[in-house]
Amino acid sequence: MSSIKIQKICCIGAGYVGGPTMSVIADKCPDLEVRVVDINKDRIEAWNDSDLTKLPIFEPGLDRIISRTRGRNLFFSLEMEKSISDADMVFISVNTPTKTKGLGAGQASDLSWVEASARQVAKYAKGHTIVIEKSTLPVRTAQAIKEILKTTTNRENQKNDISKTFSVLSNPEFLAEGTAINDLEKPDRVLIGGEDPEAVEALVNIYLNWVPSEQIICTNLWSSELSKLAANAFLAQRISSINSISAFCEATGADVQEVAKAIGTDKRIGDQFLSAGPGFGGSCFKKDILNLVYLSGYFGLPEVANYWNQVVLLNTWQQDRIYKIVLEKLFGTVNGKNIAILGFSFKANTNDTRESPAIRISCDLLEEGANLSIYDPKVSVERVEEDLEKTSFNNQGTWKMVNSIPEALKNVDAVLIITAWDEFFGLDWNYLASLMRSPAWVFDTRSVINRQEIENTGINLWKLGEGS
Ligand code: UDX
Ligand code: ADP
Questions:
Q1: Mean pLDDT over residues 348-361, rounded?
Q2: Looking at 133-142, 338-347, 385-394, 451-460, which range is the least confident one?
Q3: Rounded Cα gap, residues 187 and 181, in angstroms
């Protein structure tokens, strides 16, 4: 048994990872007190809203867990100092976006938020504190955190004559948005990297409340950090691989769904993550691969860097390819044409739009002068506005957000399906065709439409990865 008894946990960062992860820990460990802190006041207020539809993130099943844990042993607050100083264990779960300026811009991760968090921990912690990297980080970031904790603490200790000590662990999160609660409750594995056996055991003991011991993998710090980057790179690589085959299918008359099924039944390949689509989005894949590319260059491995960089290049190419097909089918111009965008989030069952293929494709169409009507069941108009304004340089068209599918399709020349929300399956295309202008096109990038559904409606259908 670890001699470290954990009673209070603090998590810095109430985002897509920190919020759901701490909710599940609080749910599974009712004897632990879990405090999630953030510098963003609006976000904390939203987490504390009595109306559970106003939680800052949409994640199926999250509201159910929040309703039974919040105020019992789960608290969301702005109170950084007390939450950290009371805690036996602090998770760092803050944003680590790609650097936009300076050395490594466009590839390396910006660690400003992680560093600020480490400094806060060094300043406010009391006694012995286990500090856990939850955010995905470049390999050897734990070393930087250790140094910040050590040097800042030495100065603090001299000043206040108190002793504080730290153990740093890496415990990357593998949840996927949209299935976060299931992924957290029934993880394939939990990964813990660290050098202090007592600290590792203390964290293992928390997970043992609901995860079988054989699914808890303990490694050294650097393996744990690298495994997270490698797992995301491998997953993204599968998507770029199947997307490259989707283009091949369109050129040859093969069908990418049939190919995916045929290769996926080989146990060595497996059937997961073989859905061709408009390219991967989300906050992790692109950022983590670019980070891997940057680190490969840094460690003098240019061939490795080039290999992984190609996965990202193919992803961008896939998005550009779709936009160019829309343009080509609409007689080479979308200027003044009306186009419906169905789905703006990067995947179904989340309101997250980070790196969503919908952003790039919409901006390209806007720059060509298209008028877009955008429908997404969960993404807010403010989110879309920020995404489009940040990305579009020379917007010649117009866009509006609408509240229903029929409203989106009224008088449009084309529909572009970008996210596979459940409600886009099995639509009444006979009725929808009557709302559209003729000739009407549907561009299905997620295989939500069965070709028979659209027969006799007069609509022209283009499906990604399906030869004509
Ligand atoms: C990913 C990893 O899956 C998760 O383990 C890690 O912790 C964070 O990054 P996430 O980005 O939330 O999770 O979602 P994921 O389901 O992996 O989808 C990422 C993107 O790939 C989405 O845009 C999705 O539409 C796309 N995708 C996924 C495909 O295009 N085809 C597939 O077969 C699977
Ligand atoms: P992720 O998907 O990794 O969870 P998010 O951007 O959704 O990323 O969430 C990260 C959260 O971390 C944000 O709510 C942000 O305000 C918060 N954050 C960033 N830096 C700090 C900090 N120094 N102290 C507290 N919270 C922070």
A1: 96
A2: 133-142
A3: 10
Q: Which of 17, 93, 134, 177 to mutate to test the pocket of ligand 1 (most atoms within 8 A of CB)?
A: 177
Tell me: do 183 and 51 sit in the same domain: yes
Residue identifier of the C-alpha nearest atom 15 of ligand 1? 176
In a domain, 456, yes or no: yes
* Residue 297 located in a structural domain: yes
Indicate if 215 and 340 belong to the same structural domain: no
| Alpha-carbon gap, residue 340 to 184, rounded angstroms | 35
Active site residues: 284
Residue 395 has pLDDT above 70, yes or no: yes
For 213, residues 6+ apart whose C-beta sits below 8 A from its C-beta are 204
pLDDT digits (tens, 9 = 90+) for 189-204: 999 999 999 999 999 9
Burial classification of residue 128, based on how many CB atoms lie within 10 Å of its CB (0-12 exposed, 13-18 middle, 19 or more buried): middle
Predicted model pTM:
0.94
16 ligand 1 Cβ < 6 A: no
As a whole number, mean pLDDT of residues 171-200 equals 97
The CATH number for 332's domain is: 3.40.50.720
Ligand 1: does its nearest atom lie under 6 Å from the Cβ of 176? yes
